[in-house]
Amino acid sequence: MNRALWPLAFLILAALSFSGGCSSGGAVPVSGRVTLDGQPLAGAHVSFQPQGGESGSSSAAGSGSYALTAADGTYVLHLVQGDRPGAVVGKHRVEINIRNESDDDRDRHGQPPPRAKQLPARYNLRTDLTCDVPAGGKSDANFELTSK
Q: How many distinct structural domains can be found in the chain?
């Protein structure tokens, strides 16, 4: 490689590292609130997976993002890769799950599991939730879920 091109190659690699290597130009801030039947949903896992271009391939679309909801149902997304705040720009498939105390492997000493809070599969396994993340970020990525 020509020595004159080394600085250009370095700048390109640095730019790719800074943007996480995705074609969407890096992460933008995303936050919102999740409610269930009108009440804040605390302790829910919110997952955003970017949808690819025309082929629908999420691997080409960039890193997914995640968050756990606070007691008031609010959340702030973080990228899975690099654990930086935000989400990549574009359309995302959204999954919302509740991790129950009974999901862990701890010995319960014969105690019955606590009453598990469940969400309908349309919010997780067979989600129909989506969110478009604009270039300027999004502070109102709210999801009003119903248990029925």
A: 1
Overall pTM > 0.85: no
What domain range is 39 assigned to? 23-104+114-145
> What is the C-alpha separation between 3 and 22, in angstroms, rounded?
27
CB 49 within 8 A of CB 58: yes
Q: pLDDT of the chain along its 148 residues, tens only? A: 555 555 555 445 444 444 443 334 479 999 999 999 999 999 999 999 999 754 444 445 678 999 999 999 999 999 998 878 999 999 999 999 997 655 444 444 554 444 446 899 999 989 999 999 999 999 999 999 999 8
